[in-house]
Write a structure and sequence with these properties.
406 residues; alpha+beta; Butyryl-Coa Dehydrogenase, subunit A, domain 1; Butyryl-CoA Dehydrogenase, subunit A, domain 2; Butyryl-CoA Dehydrogenase, subunit A, domain 3; two-stranded antiparallel sheet; 49% helix; 14% strand; globular; binds flavin-adenine dinucleotide
């Protein structure tokens, strides 16, 4: 008799070849045929190039730099090159791409989002035409990688009022002094968008600091237990001089920073849906294969309850995000719309990864079974780009007309 241990094969987040497995109400049908083709190409790349390597890189806390070449070949950002004739993708397509990225791996989705949403997004929203022509072509081809430096050691939730990094004008230059914390991609970024307070006007301004500028240094934050693949850094700016030409010409106050965050927050909410769907698919696969009491655990009512609650969370969240994308396309969405989406979907995401982990029993804490990484990573997604409390307060202020931040 063989004493070899037989366990269910580790479930993965890809159940079938559909564009969005777990898309119970077929929201994918709202994409046009060419959009579905774009998502299909991204999904194939994520399935073949990303899914097989992420657990290993997560364990070693290393970024798979070879992916930049693959992302460049997919040409997902080339529309942002000012010389390109391509139209900007619809918000639904951009959202579903963020979903697919997080469905494969939340760290890779975060690195992608920091570059494309936070860094390129700041340049698209706040740079003048000459600056856009200077930075966006190489960034859209992934030849130059961006980061976004807003959060500080003393200024997280309160960064709008509490931002301490200073900018002092000195002739044709600005002198930056201060510290930033948690800045994704910053250990290797070519360009970092740094937000600093003008000492003369007290307004928050945006600057592009090029890697290697004297006075700029970035040190990796070690030993994180979430999004381990993302290279987050502590940045120090010590009499760091940047030319006036590197000041984002249309960033005049924190309201302009908030314009960038409004759109990236909805991207994070889309990512949360990707995590929810991955958790559901992993749990469903395991429920069909794992046997206890002489039958697949998926045959127990309590297990089906978990699966259906997960599917309900993902379906409700996806519906919310599809409507948000329509509001974005129509140009009528507001800060509180994306804040509600971020707060709501990340709570649902946390429930889903917890239930999926529960359903996998002990194997749920083993990296190879794929859910443990999502459980850990969900914690960071829950807190970044505004915690649940801060996004709740943004919505609360909008609906009551009463600010309750302090
Ligand atoms: P704090 O602000 O110290 O909050 C601690 C707790 O207090 C939270 O629960 C919060 O909700 C609560 N709290 C605070 N104020 C209130 C209030 N008024 N009412 C009720 N509760 C309150 N930043 C960047 O600029 N660039 C990046 O690329 C970036 N990447 C990140 C990646 C990761 C993995 C992480 C973890 C963070 C990243 N951040 C980045 C920073 C992120 O946006 C902040 O962590 C987040 O805004 C929360 O700030 P904090 O961690 O300082 O928490």
């Amino acid at each position: 008799m063989s004493l070899a241990v037989t366990l269910p094969a580790p479930p993965g987040p890809y159940l079938d070849s559909g564009l969005l497995p777990g898309d119970f109400y077929s929201y994918q049908d709202l994409l046009s045929a060419p959009e579905r083709e774009v998502v299909g190409r991204l999904r194939d790349f994520l399935r073949t190039e990303v899914a097989p390597i992420v657990n290993d890189h997560w364990a070693r806390a290393e970024f798979p730099f070879q992916l930049f070449e693959g992302f460049a070949k997919l040409e997902l950002l080339t529309w942002a090159d000012p010389q390109s004739a391509e139209p900007k993708p619809s918000n639904l397509l951009q959202g579903i791409m963020a979903l697919e990225l997080a469905h494969a791996d939340p760290s890779i989705a975060t690195g992608f989002g920091v570059h494309s949403g936070l860094a390129m997004g700041s340049i698209l929203a706040c740079a003048d035409e000459e600056q856009q022509r200077r930075w966006l072509p190489a960034m859209s081809r992934w030849e130059q990688i961006g980061a976004f430096g807003l959060t500080e050691p003393h200024g997280g939730s309160d960064v709008a009022g509490g931002l301490e990094t200073t900018a002092r004008r000195d002739g044709d230059e600005w002198v930056l002094n201060g510290a930033k914390r948690w800045i994704g991609n910053a250990t290797f970024a070519d360009l970092v968008v740094v937000w600093a307070r003008d000492v003369d006007t007290n307004h928050v301004l945006g600057f592009v600091v090029e890697g290697g500028t004297p006075g700029y240094s970035a040190t990796k934050i070690e030993d994180k237990d979430a999004l381990r693949i993302v290279q987050n850094a502590d940045i120090v700016l010590e009499d760091c001089r940047v030319p006036e030409a590197n000041r984002l010409q249309h960033a005049n106050s924190f309201k302009d920073t908030a314009r960038v965050l409004r759109s990236t927050r909805s991207g994070v909410a889309w990512s949360a849906v990707g995590v929810m769907l991955a958790a559901y698919e992993i749990a469903l696969q395991y429920a069909k294969e794992r046997e206890q009491f002489g039958r697949p655990i998926g045959q127990f009512q309590l297990v089906q309850d978990l699966l259906v609650k997960m599917l309900g969370n993902a379906t409700a969240s996806l519906g919310m995000m599809v409507r948000l994308a329509q509001l974005q396309d129509a140009g009528v969405y507001k800060d509180e719309h994306s804040a509600l989406a971020k707060a709501y979907t990340t709570v649902r995401m946390r429930e889903n990864v917890g239930w999926a982990r529960e359903l996998l029993g002990g194997n749920g804490i083993v990296l190879d079974y794929n859910i443990a990484r999502f459980v850990a990573d969900a914690e960071a997604i829950y807190s970044y780009e505004g915690t649940r409390e801060i996004n709740t307060l943004i919505v609360g202020r909008a609906v009551t007309g009463l600010g309750a931040f302090v």
